[in-house]
From TrEMBL:
<keyword id="KW-0460">Magnesium</keyword>
<feature type="binding site">
    <location>
        <position position="252"/>
    </location>
    <ligand>
        <name>substrate</name>
    </ligand>
</feature>
<feature type="binding site">
    <location>
        <position position="183"/>
    </location>
    <ligand>
        <name>ATP</name>
    </ligand>
</feature>
<protein>
    <recommendedName>
        <fullName>Ribokinase</fullName>
        <ecNumber>2.7.1.15</ecNumber>
    </recommendedName>
</protein>
<comment type="subunit">
    <text>Homodimer.</text>
</comment>
<dbReference type="InterPro" id="IPR029056">
    <property type="entry name" value="Ribokinase-like"/>
</dbReference>
<dbReference type="InterPro" id="IPR011877">
    <property type="entry name" value="Ribokinase"/>
</dbReference>
<keyword id="KW-0418">Kinase</keyword>
<feature type="binding site">
    <location>
        <position position="282"/>
    </location>
    <ligand>
        <name>K(+)</name>
    </ligand>
</feature>
<dbReference type="InterPro" id="IPR002139">
    <property type="entry name" value="Ribo/fructo_kinase"/>
</dbReference>
<comment type="pathway">
    <text>Carbohydrate metabolism; D-ribose degradation; D-ribose 5-phosphate from beta-D-ribopyranose: step 2/2.</text>
</comment>
<feature type="binding site">
    <location>
        <position position="287"/>
    </location>
    <ligand>
        <name>K(+)</name>
    </ligand>
</feature>
<dbReference type="InterPro" id="IPR011611">
    <property type="entry name" value="PfkB_dom"/>
</dbReference>
<feature type="binding site">
    <location>
        <position position="246"/>
    </location>
    <ligand>
        <name>K(+)</name>
    </ligand>
</feature>
<feature type="domain" description="Carbohydrate kinase PfkB">
    <location>
        <begin position="4"/>
        <end position="294"/>
    </location>
</feature>
<keyword id="KW-0067">ATP-binding</keyword>
<keyword id="KW-0547">Nucleotide-binding</keyword>
């Protein structure tokens, strides 16, 4: 069984499905509300566990009902959460507006995550060192992101950065990243580009790859993905989704499947294809955690036995 260490966020997702998103100062009625677990780190950890990996998670939650629900969820999903920090602030909350098309708008109050620091990451070092791959996302303080990537590099563990939400990275962090996985919106932010930069997806992916010295995977929604590594760029065609119900967890599903596939020793282009299939499955189901595929579901979608 492969081992995956995840450093990232947990938050309660408070989702409202609306006929349309409101304009500034406008109230739109007719919504349907549903609460549920979220946060990129937790979603990715659960996604990896469902695909058969042994997963350890580092995040921070509050001493509140949301935090207690999170710990119960991780026990149920088989995610090791022994090092999760109980913070003084409330558990992170994300407010999610979903349109009928499946497109979403998200606002986040970090709360407990602001207390996730380099010292907490240091206590997680043994789990990072024992892992086949380390997954880091950026809904946490930059100090924790940096400490996690440095710990991964010191331990010789493959590092995968899911740079969401995107912000420019310090120059000294780029060489610590083996694989970076932005979407089309995040890539220009990482590169410090302004609107109207004029670069196509291929050039964005190649520039990100050059900064890491490793590889870049640019996710493109319904257009699939681009993989840049070792001077070559490969297009990963999209896997068709039966219908688009909710795109909220697609990126986390993609990241989890990519990480597990790489941990299993698969080439990056093959891993990205598998990840695309996982993401396509996720958009067909409302909610995030209910939509993360199991290994059997992913195998069925791939049409192969692995």
């Amino acid at each position: 069984m492969v081992k995956v260490a995840v450093v990232g966020s947990y938050g309660a997702g408070l989702t409202m499905r609306l006929p349309r998103s409101p304009d500034a100062g406008e109230t739109v009625s007719g919504g349907v509300f549903s609460p549920g677990p979220g946060g990129k780190g937790s979603n990715q950890a659960i996604g990896a566990a469902r695909l058969g990996a042994q997963v350890s998670l580092l995040t921070a939650v509050g001493d509140d009902d949301f935090g207690r629900a999170a710990r119960a969820l991780w026990r149920e999903e088989g995610v090791a959460a022994d090092h999760v920090l109980t913070a003084g602030a409330p558990t992170m909350v994300g407010f999610i507006l979903v349109e009928p098309s499946g497109e979403n708008r998200i606002s986040i109050a970090p709360g407990a995550l602001d207390e996730l620091d380099a010292a907490a990451v240091e206590s997680f070092h043994a789990e990072i060192a024992a892992a086949d791959i380390l997954v880091v996302s950026m809904e946490i303080p930059e100090a924790a992101v940096a400490a996690a990537l440095r710990a991964g590099r010191r331990a010789g563990t493959t590092t995968l950065l899911n740079p969401a939400p995107a912000r420019p990275l310090p120059d000294d962090l780029w060489p610590l990243i083996d694989v970076i996985t932005p979407n089309q919106t995040e890539a220009p932010v990482l590169l410090g580009l302004q609107e109207g930069h004029g670069l196509d997806d291929g050039e964005l992916t190649r520039r990100l790859c050059a900064l890491t010295g490793g590889a870049a995977v640019l996710t493109r929604g319904g257009e699939g993905a681009l993989v840049a590594q070792a001077g070559a760029t490969t297009r990963i065609p999209p896997h068709p989704a039966e219908s688009v119900v909710d795109t909220t967890g697609a990126g986390d599903s993609f990241t989890a499947a990519l990480a597990v596939s790489l941990a299993e020793g698969r080439p990056l282009t093959e891993a990205a294809h598998i990840a695309g299939v996982a993401g396509a499955h996720t958009v067909t189901i409302a909610g995030v955690v209910p939509a993360l595929p199991t290994r059997d579901q992913l195998d069925d979608l791939m049409g192969t036995e692995r």
